[in-house]
Amino acid sequence: MNLSKDEAATALAAVGRSQAALRQAFRAHCGHWHLWLWGGIWVVMALTAHFGGPSAVARYFLPLSLAGGLASGLIGFLQGRQVRLPVDWRFLRLLAALLGFGLIWPFVLRPTPSNELVFAYIGLLVAQAYVAAGLWFDVYLFWLGLLLAVLLLVGLWFFLPVFWIWIAVFGGGALIGGGCYVRWGWR
What is the H or E stretch that residue 5 is in? Predict the structure, then answer.
């Protein structure tokens, strides 16, 4: 099948209009809430670890993560009532594979990590999921994932004594800023 230049331009314009309509729908119907939610959870986790120490990490990180997962599910349910999109099972299988392999690596490498390293490792898995989502759906998620990865590594390499403060400001801040971009700057 050969398309003329006019037909190709018309098809690309239709894709552009579709993407703009989808972005507007997400912006209007809670698409930014996920980023705000997880940015806030990262801030709370990091400040809890900084001020509460290792015992606070053990006590609060799992409940915060579970509460975030439930809140994400609720946001997704509410958003799904407004924006009807079919579930992309291929993408979900990709995320499951990335997470599955990500969970296996520590058992193979057998590290003895600190709380900071475990948080950074899990954060890098999350950043990898954002990059994959950006490649699959929308480029802003790609850049957000890369930014998170860089900020996590910079915090580990250069700011380890104040790692948790670094994560609260820049890790959680990047997610909150991404939500602000989706809400007010996405076109």
Answer: helix 5-28
